[in-house]
Amino acid sequence: MLELRDIKKHYKVGNTVTKALDGVSVAFRQQEFVAILGESGSGKTTLLNVIGGLDQYDSGDMVINGKSTKDFKDKDWDAYRNNSIGFIFQSYNLIGHQGIIDNVELGMTLSGVSKKERRKKAEEALERVGLKEHIHKKPSQLSGGQMQRVAIARALANDPDILLCDEPTGALDSETSTQIMNLIQEVAQDKLVVMVTHNADLAHEYADRTINFADGRVTDDSNPHVEGKKKEPFDLKHTKMTFLTALRLSFNNIRTKKGRTFLTAFASSIGIISIAIVLSLSSGFQKQIDQTQSETLAQFPITISRETTDQDPENFEDQRSNEGTFPDNDEVTAKTSDEDRSQRTNDIDQDFIDYVDDINPALSNNIGYTRLANMNLLREIDGDPELVQFSNGSEDESQAESMMSMMAAQTGVGVSSFPKQLDDSQGNFLEDNYQLLDGSFPEDTNDVVLVVDENNETNINALNNLGFDLEDGDNVSFDDIVGTTVTLAYNDAFYEELPTGNFIPNQDLDEVYDNDDNEEITISGVIRNKESSTMDLLAPGIAYSDALAQKVIDHNQDSDIVQAQEDSDTNVMTSEDIDDTAKDNLLDALGASEIPYSVMIYPNNFDDKEQILDYLDDYNEGKDNEDKIIYSDLAGTMTELTGGIMDAITYVLVAFAGISLVTSMIMIGIITYTSVLERTKEIGVLKALGARKKDITRVFDAETAILGVASGTLGVFIAYLATFPINAVLLNLTDLENVAQLDPMHALTLVIVSTVLTMIGGHIPARMAAKKDAAIALRAE
Ligand code: ADP
Ligand code: MG
Q1: Chain segment 180-196, per-residue pLDDT in tens
Q2: Which atom belonging to ligand 1 lies closest to the Cα atom of 216?
Q3: 745 in contact with ligand 1, CB cutoff 6 A
Q4: Which of 14, 329, 525, 547 lies most in the core, judged by the most C-beta atoms within 10 Å?
Q5: Cα–Cα distance between 390 and 413 in angstroms, integer?
Q6: Which segments of 113-259 are extended strands (E)?
Q7: 3-state DSSP: the chain helix, strand, coil percent, rounded to 5?
Q8: What does the alpha-carbon distance between residue 333 and residue 740 come to, in Å, rounded to a whole number?
Q9: Hey, how many other C-beta atoms are within 10 angstroms of the C-beta on 354?
Q10: Is the pTM value of this prediction over 0.90?
Q11: Which residue has its alpha carbon closest to ligand 1 atom 10?
Q12: Nearest C-alpha to atom 15 of ligand 1 is from which residue?
């Protein structure tokens, strides 16, 4: 069934080619016990390795069941070893970190036998060699004779056709040797057993046939066989190890060296730890920055106001170069101050308002307007209508105070009309940023709300101006406020024309109050800024929609008093002479103009703000200086402070952390390489059992995968723990809470990155391991 024809095998020692086999020709029968007898170094092991397909011959031909192995591919040899060959070595070659039963099962695992059948066959094999009661032990707990029995059980378990024994009793005492030889003889009843030995007594006592071997040649054969020319079907079942088996093998191996594995995982996790910390810090800082940015922008929006200051430094260039000439003369030069020089008027028109309305809502969805138009409001108190107002000013508001509220309007602090949404589908400003304490959010143009601060306090004037009679510190229940109605009278009802042509507010408030054109305005709810909101725009007090202000203007635009005022150069109420500015202001107050006094744009963050500024700059492109619209960007100076620096720092830190990651990858490579060296024998055994190159690679890939997952998880876990002390220190230093936050997505990514990188780092040594010559691997000590 097996025939060797003129097999030669050459080895290289240094540059010299030596011969281990020198044209061996021999044929074996299906069932016989052949002993090959020869001196040490005569080439016996080499011959067995060639028969077993562990070491490929250089010339000659091997024929199995009439089929030449000349065209055998790697996978055919692997399958041949797995299906047809059982090896028994002088030094047992059991895998130390695996249990006895696992060692016996290994060959079947490779040929894909089911777990249940594997276990059954392995138990049978162990019972056959008399080790039934030792099944649950490890190889290291057995004597030499017992280990050799395990090796025999392993060789038999897969039911091979040929059993190859390389000095099976070489390491055993004579009594144990006898037991083992009896066992092998028993096996030889129904198999071809080829045993090599240098013990002539043993050979003659047990074998059916003895072949003398010297210097790689057959010198004498006690019972030569001539293989016929029969051609039998010879099918091989190809082997395959699953990744799970590889994992189990590696996991058991790793378990035997817990300390080292932990240290390795820890050392290689340092890269992961540093990256995780850098990421959690930078995303935490980024959150803080984003929040500060939008808070800043809520307080300092881009403002376009009718009266403005030109902050463009270009316009002061000549002023600056003039500095400090210390002239030696006796004259004083009269000069316009910087402030006065930079005062200018923006000619805001409908064009510009439309342009603002076209701002990309993704950059800023909120646009606030300040309008100077008065609302004529009345409320019935104790049965009689009285004049009231939506204002936080004290009743006897002085000139200075109205200037103050004008200033407030310019900077956007404490606006009373809430911003208009450019895109309603992107949310509702009030509902997104404010919490409803009582009543409902405005549903109608005529609904207004009362805004309170985080202590539920609101401006006393706001309430008193509406006719409440309160002292500082008095409390009013929500119920008394929600549902309060105020009557809005339009100019034609509110003002009456005197026969002189002058206008005065109608003194008969009952008449004004009962006019059919009046509107009813309701305080629909009480709201408070959400804790999480950064858009704290509305000052405590009454807030209404810009739509309401526009509605008032729409109606009052064509009122008699407005038309009269437009045609007159004197104040139509007082008959005073007025200049153009005073007339404009008066007209605005009467609601003559649809154009707001100022526009406030609230971008989401500084980047978006830059884009909006560019957009606004485009409006001025090609316009005369007087026609340009100058905006003030009060948050502008803060831009340089944050933004870019944070990114730069993150990049540098991630780069450093990346270096430690590469270092740990190299380390994993070295560790795997060491492991490969350590497990060389195991590789040999696996190959002898029919493992493919792929399977060997798998075993080591599995090991690095375990290491990678372990070090990634450990790193992420340590980094997570580290965020607590880091946050404590940062809180002490900066008053910022919970800056370092490990994003779960980052954590997961890092574990994956760690696994992938360590697998890459370990894959090259794994490939080297797989390529190892099996015959040489088995010779390794
Ligand atoms: P035996 O098993 O009969 O003691 P071996 O088959 O192990 O002999 O070796 C036969 C000869 O081939 C020895 O001289 C040995 O040094 C040599 N040899 C075996 N394997 C190699 C190898 N991989 N490289 C070089 N020489 C080898
Ligand atoms: Mg040998």
Answers
A1: 999 999 988 889 999 99
A2: 10
A3: no
A4: 525
A5: 16
A6: 162-166, 192-197, 209-214, 217-221
A7: 50, 20, 35
A8: 59
A9: 9
A10: no
A11: 43
A12: 41
